[in-house]
Amino acid sequence: MTISDGILPPGSQVPRPLIDDILANFRLPPSSVHGPAHWARVRLNGMQIARRSGADWKVIELFAFLHDSQRHDDGADPEHGPRAADYALSRHDVLFHLEPAQLHALVTACRGHTRERLTDSATVQACWDADRLDLYRVGILPDRYYLGTPAARDASLMRAAIARSRQLQHHDIPDDWDLGKDHDFSPEGD
User: Which of 73, 90, 140, 173 is deepest in the core (most CB within 10 A)?
Assistant: First the structure.
C-alpha cells in the first residue's frame, strides 16, 4: 500500500507514482488548507463541472492534485501556480502523459489559477472554478462573479461545494447567503 491509496479515489486517471511524488515534495503539513483534502474537494468540484460543461476530465483531475502542490506556505505565495506548472512540465512523460493541447491547458490552469478570472478555454475555466468553489475552507464564500462556467454558478452546486469546504450539511447553509446573485452574468458579455 502506498501513501496515495488514501488520496486517489477509485477510477482516478492520476497515476499513483505521480501522487506519491507530489506528496513526497509537498512542503506543507498534510493538514494544510492547501493540502490533500483541498485537492480532493477540487477534484470533486471539477468532476461535477466537467459533467455539465464537457471540459477535459483528465486535465481537471491532474490540476486538482497539482495546482497547490508547490506552495511554500499557506499565506501569500504568488509564485506557487507557476511553480506547479513547472513541476507538471518536469513530470510530464515521466510520471504522466497528456496530448500537447491537454498539457497546454494544464500548465495554463496551474499558472493562472490565482491571477486570472476568465478564459475562453472550457477546461481551464473548469479548473479555476473547481478551485474557487472550495474557498469557504478559509472563510471566503465563492462569488459567481469569479466563476466562468454556468455549472459552477449553479446555486445548488455552489451550496454543495460550500458545505464540503467546511464539512457542513447542505441544509446548514442559509438560503439568504449572498452567493453573488447580483453578479450573475454571461462570460461572453464580459
Answer: 173
> Does some domain include residue 44?
yes
- 124 lies in which domain range? 13-185
**Residue 115 falls within a domain, yes or no?**
yes
- Res. 2 pLDDT band, cuts 50 70 90: very low
Per DSSP, the chain holds a count of helices (H) and strands (E) of 8, 0
Nearby residues of 14 by Cβ (< 8 Å), 6 or more positions away: 8, 61, 62, 65, 96
Tell me the average pLDDT of the chain.
Answer: 87
d(CA 120, CA 11): 29
Sorted by sequence, the CB contacts under 8 Å of residue 1 that are 6+ apart come out as none
Q: Is residue 3 part of a domain?
A: no
* 130 found inside a domain: yes
Cα separation, 151 vs 138, in Å, equals 22
CATH of the domain at 20: 1.10.3210.10
Q: What is the pTM of this model?
A: 0.87
* Whether the predicted pLDDT of 102 surpasses 70: yes
Closest Cα partner for 126 from 97, 105, 103, 96? 105
Residue 44 has pLDDT above 80, yes or no: yes
Instruction: Judge whether 105 and 87 are in contact, CB under 8 Å.
Output: no
The domain tally of the chain equals 1
